[in-house]
């Protein structure tokens, strides 16, 4: 595995597939014109992001409270669990026969709470090029699965991050044309929905801005709000700001979001469970009118990146590391 890549620690479990998207018609289209990168108003401003009660952080906090409700560990994990993080949609966890209903239930719960859910679509064929987060669907099933997710989000405002690492890994994996086409198809599928969509652009310690921008432009970033950086990585916010601005300048002013879940001390050149890192800025939309729309916890910070540096399997909750990240951040 290339140490410059931002591999993702995500739980890999049950495998499956979903129903095709229904015809949405001109009525839906009038409600859901895609937000273009040229738009200056921040669609995330003022939003409260959804805190999934079934997140690994919430489950870990509940376990700690049951074991010893007065402990420092329980207090720290409870504080971590209060932070909304993205919901990763993998076909292994959200299979094709249930994904539409599952996502609709999450969206409904978010609406009831007065919050906006953040979803990560992560089921592309040959996901992660066979590395720690290997998996994904077949070429035939993948578009159907994505369409089912889009159907569930047709009339519910949401934030959607499309396929972390897919474009950035494409040059290494030799499948650029295929990845570009798959992302283009995803953009088209989400166009009739109320989702604010961001394509993944890697991060500042991986691709140079010109390469990242070229991939984004080919994939159709002009047809969505913008791009995401630092997903599941550790680079500090200043580095990602500079990277995001440089990429934006080459993508007709596309806006961006930054994963700040574990970037409180910046990176150290490692992407897989590096030691000495810290929690970063908590999730919140920006208010300065700049190109950066929000700091989000895209990666749940207590989840392992993979079986490296003595970590558990990718996506499993790692209590010791979660507490280390919090302590390093001064929590």
Automatic annotation (TrEMBL):
<dbReference type="InterPro" id="IPR001524">
    <property type="entry name" value="Glyco_hydro_6_CS"/>
</dbReference>
<keyword id="KW-0732">Signal</keyword>
<keyword id="KW-0624">Polysaccharide degradation</keyword>
<keyword id="KW-0136">Cellulose degradation</keyword>
<feature type="binding site">
    <location>
        <position position="299"/>
    </location>
    <ligand>
        <name>substrate</name>
    </ligand>
</feature>
<dbReference type="InterPro" id="IPR016288">
    <property type="entry name" value="Beta_cellobiohydrolase"/>
</dbReference>
<feature type="active site">
    <location>
        <position position="128"/>
    </location>
</feature>
<protein>
    <recommendedName>
        <fullName>Glucanase</fullName>
        <ecNumber>3.2.1.-</ecNumber>
    </recommendedName>
</protein>
<feature type="active site" description="Proton acceptor">
    <location>
        <position position="305"/>
    </location>
</feature>
<comment type="similarity">
    <text>Belongs to the glycosyl hydrolase family 6.</text>
</comment>
<dbReference type="GO" id="GO:0004553">
    <property type="term" value="F:hydrolase activity, hydrolyzing O-glycosyl compounds"/>
</dbReference>
<keyword id="KW-0326">Glycosidase</keyword>
<keyword id="KW-0812">Transmembrane</keyword>
<feature type="binding site">
    <location>
        <position position="233"/>
    </location>
    <ligand>
        <name>substrate</name>
    </ligand>
</feature>
<feature type="transmembrane region" description="Helical">
    <location>
        <begin position="12"/>
        <end position="33"/>
    </location>
</feature>
<keyword id="KW-0378">Hydrolase</keyword>
<feature type="active site" description="Proton donor">
    <location>
        <position position="165"/>
    </location>
</feature>
<keyword id="KW-1133">Transmembrane helix</keyword>
<dbReference type="Pfam" id="PF01341">
    <property type="entry name" value="Glyco_hydro_6"/>
</dbReference>
<feature type="binding site">
    <location>
        <position position="203"/>
    </location>
    <ligand>
        <name>substrate</name>
    </ligand>
</feature>
<dbReference type="GO" id="GO:0030245">
    <property type="term" value="P:cellulose catabolic process"/>
</dbReference>
<keyword id="KW-0119">Carbohydrate metabolism</keyword>
<feature type="binding site">
    <location>
        <position position="88"/>
    </location>
    <ligand>
        <name>substrate</name>
    </ligand>
</feature>
<feature type="binding site">
    <location>
        <position position="271"/>
    </location>
    <ligand>
        <name>substrate</name>
    </ligand>
</feature>
<keyword id="KW-1015">Disulfide bond</keyword>
<dbReference type="InterPro" id="IPR036434">
    <property type="entry name" value="Beta_cellobiohydrolase_sf"/>
</dbReference>
<keyword id="KW-0472">Membrane</keyword>
<feature type="binding site">
    <location>
        <position position="206"/>
    </location>
    <ligand>
        <name>substrate</name>
    </ligand>
</feature>
<feature type="binding site">
    <location>
        <position position="303"/>
    </location>
    <ligand>
        <name>substrate</name>
    </ligand>
</feature>
């Amino acid at each position: 595995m290339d140490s410059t890549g931002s591999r993702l620690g995500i739980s890999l479990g049950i495998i499956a597939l979903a129903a095709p998207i229904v015809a949405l018609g001109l009525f839906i289209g009038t409600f859901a014109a895609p937000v273009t990168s040229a738009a200056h108003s921040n669609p995330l401003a003022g939003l409260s992001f959804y805190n999934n009660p079934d997140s690994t952080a919430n489950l870990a906090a509940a376990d700690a409270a049951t074991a010893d409700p007065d402990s420092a560990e329980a207090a720290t994990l409870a504080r971590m669990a209060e932070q909304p993080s993205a919901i990763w949609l993998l076909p292994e966890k959200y299979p094709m026969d249930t994904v539409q209903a599952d996502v609709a239930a999450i969206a409904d719960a978010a609406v009831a709470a007065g919050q906006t859910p953040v979803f990560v679509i992560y089921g592309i064929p040959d996901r992660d090029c066979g590395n720690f987060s290997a998996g994904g669907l077949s070429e035939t099933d993948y578009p159907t699965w994505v369409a089912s997710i889009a159907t569930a989000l047709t009339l519910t405002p949401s934030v959607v991050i499309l396929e972390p690492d897919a474009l950035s890994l494409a040059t290494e994996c030799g499948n650029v044309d295929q990845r570009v086409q798959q992302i283009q198809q995803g953009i088209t599928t989400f166009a009739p929905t109320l989702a604010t969509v961001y394509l993944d652009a890697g991060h500042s310690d991986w691709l140079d801005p010109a390469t990242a921008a070229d991939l984004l432009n080919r994939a159709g970033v002009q047809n969505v709000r913008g791009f995401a950086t630092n997903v599941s990585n550790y680079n500090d916010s200043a580095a990602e700001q500079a990277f995001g601005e440089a990429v934006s300048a080459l993508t007709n002013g596309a806006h961006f979001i930054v994963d700040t879940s574990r970037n409180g001390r910046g990176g150290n050149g490692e992407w897989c469970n590096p030691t000495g890192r810290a929690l970063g800025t908590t999730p919140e939309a920006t208010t300065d009118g700049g190109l950066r729309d929000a700091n989000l916890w895209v990666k749940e910070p207590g989840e392992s990146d993979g079986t490296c540096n003595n970590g558990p399997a990718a996506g499993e909750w790692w209590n010791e590391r979660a507490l280390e990240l919090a302590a390093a951040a001064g929590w």
